[in-house]
Structure prediction request, 222 residues.
Amino acid sequence: METQNRRQFLTTSGGAFCALSLGLGACGEGRESDRGQTADEGTVSGGRLENTVYGDVVLGEPAAPVEIIEYASMTCGACAHFHTNIFPELKAKYIDTGKVRFILRNFVTNSVDLSASMVARCGGEDKFYALIDLMFAERDKFLGGDPVTGIADIVRRAGLSRTDVDSCLQDKELQKAIIISRDEGAKQYNVNRTPTFVVNREEIIVGAGSIEEFDRVLAGYL
Prediction:
């Protein structure tokens, strides 16, 4: 059954990714290099979760003086390192204190990445960053075996059922929105690897960096 599910996933999600991907490499490329780089449960209406997020989700004070946009891939080892080891201190020092508003934009590089990114957005704004953290912490569950089963196992603890996950992955508008956001990041900020951070839409930090690097850059804006 797992082999069948994985084959079906690669046929549908992979095909969707290939069809929607524009100009950033052939389908199936980028996986190895990329790795070096309780709200109410959603309801299903017409095959789509009603609280799905299509745009930016701001973490922190919307009027904070500094904005950080992260372009991240859910299959990226460097992104996982940032979110598990650096982001908690960045959040405590700058986001929770009202100095920084933080936005994560999915920069998808393969079909598994696209599926994980979609599911993170199908939990609604209140669950978005919690689902991102969960999936980065346990990404091994969907990088091997059946990706959808791995993703569903992770997000079940945040209140999303397997039915929710399956319905989410059929949302063609969400697929398109994520790909368009990825392409806009590449065009506007020349993003070509993950993670990439854009500070106040001016300064670029490429790679996971360190809290000391963020301290240095943010000092110029605060």
